């Protein structure tokens, strides 16, 4: 079999072009930058309100997410092995009526805090794996838009610690 130089060069050029397009992927530069600098938000003062009835299938979680990073980040999910389902919710007042809705994305501006507190942003913690006990510490993980996770804990308490 005789190789033609032009066909080899053309094949090489097509292969290199395909490789360059494949390597670029679809990820944006912002998540790559945040992953590269290693900066992560910090979960602080996390707690779960002890339900009045241990058989209740839900609880609410509170605390503070601090973003010390130089760029904005966003939380897109939360999870815990202590609960079957964890989601971010926000309570608002509409015409004097308290309404709660799930939020899909919690933006964290550079250097800012997101405060999760009763009557505002909070975690909805559904179907605890075990009954909640005063003083227990439960793991929580916040999933960032770039795929990284922020690990923390929620202390079970009847009132804000």
UniProtKB/TrEMBL annotation:
Gene3D superfamilies: PCu(A)C copper chaperone. Pfam families: PCuAC (PF04314). This is Copper chaperone PCu(A)C. It comes from the Bacteria. Keywords: Signal. PANTHER family: BLR7088 PROTEIN, COPPER CHAPERONE PCU(A)C. Residues 1-29 form the signal peptide.
């Amino acid at each position: 079999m005789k190789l033609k130089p032009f066909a080899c060069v053309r094949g090489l050029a097509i292969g290199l072009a395909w490789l360059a397009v494949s390597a670029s992927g679809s990820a944006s530069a912002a998540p790559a930058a945040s992953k590269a600098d290693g900066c992560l938000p910090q979960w602080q003062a996390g707690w779960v309100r002890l339900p009045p009835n241990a058989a209740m299938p839900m609880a609410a979680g509170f605390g503070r997410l601090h973003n010390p990073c130089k760029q904005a980040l966003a939380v897109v999910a939360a999870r815990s092995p202590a609960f079957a389902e964890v989601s971010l919710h926000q309570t608002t007042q509409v015409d004097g009526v308290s309404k709660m809705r799930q939020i899909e994305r919690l933006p964290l501006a550079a250097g800012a805090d997101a405060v999760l507190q009763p009557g505002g942003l909070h975690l909805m913690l559904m179907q605890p794996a075990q009954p909640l006990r005063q003083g227990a510490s439960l793991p929580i993980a916040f999933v960032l838009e770039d795929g990284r996770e922020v690990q923390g804990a929620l202390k079970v308490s009847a009132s804000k610690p």
